[in-house]
Design goal:
This protein folds into two domains: 2-30 and 42-76; 119-494, Beta Barrel (Porin). It has two helices and 21 strands. It has helices spanning 2-27, 46-76; strands at 118-132, 161-165, 170-179, 182-193, 202-213, 216-222, 247-256, 260-267, 273-274, 287-290, 295-304, 307-322, 333-347, 352-362, 375-379, 394-398, 400-413, 416-427, 438-450, 456-469, 475-494. Helix 1 (2-27) runs antiparallel to helix 2.
Length: 495
Amino acid sequence: MRSNKRSWTSVLVLALFSIGLLIIPAFGQAPEQPKQSQDQPKQKTEAEILKERLQQLEQTVSELKDQLNAMEAAKKAPPKPVIVEATYVPGTSASTSPTDATDAAVPEKKKQVQGESSFEVYGFAMLDAGYQFKQNHPDWFDTLRVTKLPAFANEFGVDGHTYWGVRQSRLGFKSSTPTQFGELKTVFEFELFGTGADAGQTTFRLRHAYGELGQFGAGQYWTVFGDVDTFPNSFEYWGPPGLIWYRNVGFRWMPLKGRNSITIGIERPGASADQGNYADRVELQGVKPKFNVPDFTGNFRMTRDWGHVQFAGMLRKISWVDTNKDDEVDLSDTVWGYGTSITSALNFGKNDVGRFSFVYGTGIENYFNDAPTDVGIEVLKDINPLGKGQSPSIRGVTLPILGLSAFLDHRWNPKFTSAMGWSMINIENSNGQSANAFHQGHYALGNVAYYPVPNVMIGAEFQWGRRSNFLDGFTSSDYRIQFAFKYNFSKQFKF
């Protein structure tokens, strides 16, 4: 605006100056005209000279008016948008649009994707070494799982063992790519901790194989029902039993992200059963599980400066079919499992984080970090439990479970940290389970970690666990001291 005013001022000054050049001589004394010779043409009169100057002045003023009008028109007209077609090429992120091009000028389907792609290789090498004062199942020698403690005296031999291992070591890959539908993220991660048929071995085990695009994700990843931020900074691999800690295969929809988030998932179903005192019955040998409906999970999470709170729930269908046709007893049935949880990680100042979890449900044991079977046997009649031609005297029921966990992570200074806390699970057993069936477990630990340089951790941890049986009153405990040496690595590539 200021530059336009200055231009108009300059034009007016020039016009007045020109008028002054033309008018001033007219008011002064006319110069004496030299005498003309007879062969020279007659000179113009003073009136004719003034008339010509006036015509020149009128022409100059007209040109100045045209320039002013053009400047006013240019000021009022909107700027013409610059339209540049930008085509997205997967794997690229550089913009081909000029910075003055507006989003409105570019068709929606041809908008350039902003940002850059990245690929990261990460992981750590870790040595665990310790001394176990009691005993547990030998396949789980380097963990403290309360469900693997003895169910009767000296079930696993004698007390006192040392253990060494690198099974916590991990290798993973992450990628991030901007697209017109949102950020495309993938994670592919392994560790060396064998489970299942490989229990007790050092072998590659898949942790995550997951992809996410915008609001949708699919693959093997943490269950939507869980909250990974409630796990303490512990050295012991398996961790607190009262947490929902489960990697499952499924699909999720995240319609709301940010400080308030909502996630809805459908996940791979599955459950296990304890046939208890009736495990050797012929009638039960033909009972086979049937899972024809996925598990349904969901959570709502609020994140603030003080930490976060999450509310989660799940619902599942558990069915089994009696394939034994040699008797008239049909044990086929369907039960429903459900669960709800409230979890949080709260910042108690700059150096302390409290991690809390409350979970209650029935038939959801396999979602817990360390819990037994989901379904148990309930006896309906005491006489002739199973007999040909009679109605079923037993049935399968889901087992109610309560899980609690409370831990504190504390930072003493930039080089020293500690974690301490307690966790518990409690099973409401069915009356058809054996007397030494798992009923309750307690778990506690405390540690000190030292970080001498970035990406290196050295620490020591004391652990305690206890198991209580269902009816026979037997309990067993374990005590451990564990030392850990951990070396992290990470390299990110951007393109």
